[in-house]
Amino acid sequence: MSGLDKIFDSVGSRSLFKNKRVLQSNYTPESIPHRDKQIEQIAGILAPSLLGEKTSNLFIYGVTGTGKTLSIQHVTNELMRRASENKILRVEYLNCKLKKVADTEYRILAELIKKLGGSVPATGLPTDHVYMKFLEILESGDEKLLILILDEVDQAVKKINDEFLYNLTRLNSELSNKQIIIIGISNDLRFLDSLDPRVRSSLSEEEMVFPPYNAVQLQDILKKRANESFKLGVVSEGVIAKCSAYAAREHGDARRALDLLRVAGELAERASSPKIKIEHIDNANDKIERDKILDIIETEPKQFQLVLYSILELIERAKKTKNSVFTGDIYNYYCDLCKQVKVETLTQRRVGDIIAEFDMLGLINATVISKGRYGRMREIKLVIPENILDRCRGILVEGLGL
DNA sequence: CGAGATTCATGTGAAGTATACCTTTAGGCTTAA
DNA sequence: AAGCCTAAAGGTATACTTCACATGAATCTCGTA
């Protein structure tokens, strides 16, 4: 038996997981603790849809990981189950945050059409044409109602404008025998205030707020899932408490807590530990943060990577001299870098926008400051933790062929 | 000395351009009657 | 004549550029005490 066989064979017996899926973020549990009230309320609002009646549009707030998406999905799943025979309902879920998938009006519509079974080219069509196509494909279906769930709408509106929401809410008047119910989900509590009053009133006919979980509730949730997910006796004393404490600090983000538990389990498994210990959670916390950032960096387009590399290098240098880094410095360094790699340089205008995007992504922190006589620029600070800087640089160097 | 003007380096908005892709339309070719 | 293919014409979204104006506090200027 080869050495590898041994490793492969031992996987089954060594695994700490009974059913890992339970801890993955796309898993929909049977019951959702501490959200009974909200679920009932949603169900109450959406119930008439079973009879094919148009219900109010619904708007839901709450910070990440408070069970918004889960609750909605739970209710709509039940609705679908009840409505499965008579085909009056259809539910579509769309996350508006996904870059390159749903970050423009055109792409959101294209994505919706795709989900409904049609197809549209990535570019070339006038937007109103795409609207027509959307209506067409909607009319062609059997279902009377479409429940459209737009997750993280605030992101979409920030990138586009609120007119497209208005267009969506107005589509109902163009549909002869179909109706659309829009459910908007947002993490940003102030989002509604920034909307045009017209859009606001039609989108948020009903509003709901999901409060964050407190540490006790988080523990409850984690316990339940841990029991389903891990084999008996695998979870050490205090692990659950620690996970929920971490997550409670992140304003009650349950998803974060579950991720933490799952990754901790994976780490423990990899380290051949028979139990998940508290130290695994600390490691998991680092790993999650790390993977998130590394993934963003890796998937960013080349020009963005060049800018980011410039930022990284300059901040590294500035650390020694205790100077700050500004837009101009970065642009100069970036230009040199482009020459070195033989890539076309973008204009400073564009690079400025790219820097702003990194700010949005949370990789850097860029604040506009005025240095009086010496101009006005963004002061740029890195948000990426020290301990993964080298790996970031590694990815960039490799990706750029430096 | 201090109020107001000046200045710098870039922020920021709007409009224009390049590219890649789409539909429509007209012409040319083939085919079947 | 009808059907099919192709190429040109006309159109769009997106990423980027160009142009022009906006910003805001350190510094300068100059009248005044």
Please specify the SSE layout and strand pairing:
Blueprint: H1 3-14, H2 36-46, E1 58-61, H3 68-83, E2 89-95, H4 105-115, H5 127-140, E3 145-151, H6 153-159, H7 163-174, E4 179-186, H8 197-203, E5 206-209, H9 215-229, H10 239-249, H11 254-270, H12 278-299, H13 302-321, E6 325-326, H14 327-341, H15 348-361, E7 364-370, E8 376-382, H16 389-400
Parallel strand pairs: 1-4, 1-5, 2-3, 3-4
Antiparallel strand pairs: 6-8, 7-8
The structure holds a DNA duplex (33 and 33 nucleotides).
What does this 3D model show about the protein?
The protein is an alpha/beta fold. The protein folds into three domains: 3-18 and 213-292, Orthogonal Bundle (Helicase, Ruva Protein, domain 3), CATH 1.10.8.60; 36-209, 3-Layer(aba) Sandwich (Rossmann fold), CATH 3.40.50.300; 300-400, Winged helix-like DNA-binding domain superfamily/Winged helix DNA-binding domain (Arc Repressor Mutant, subunit A), CATH 1.10.10.10. 54% of the residues lie in helices and 11% in strands. It contains 16 helices and eight strands. The protein has helices spanning 3-14, 36-46, 68-83, 105-115, 127-140, 153-159, 163-174, 197-203, 215-229, 239-249, 254-270, 278-299, 302-321, 327-341, 348-361, 389-400; strands at residues 58-61, 89-95, 145-151, 179-186, 206-209, 325-326, 364-370, 376-382. The strands form two sheets. A five-stranded parallel β-sheet has the order 2-3-4-1-5, sandwiched between helices. A three-stranded antiparallel β-sheet has the order 6-8-7. Strand 7 (364-370) and strand 8 form a beta hairpin. The longest helix is centred in the C-terminal third of the chain and has 22 residues, at 278-299. The chain starts with a helix and ends with a helix. It binds a DNA duplex (33 and 33 nucleotides) through helix 15, strand 7 and strand 8.
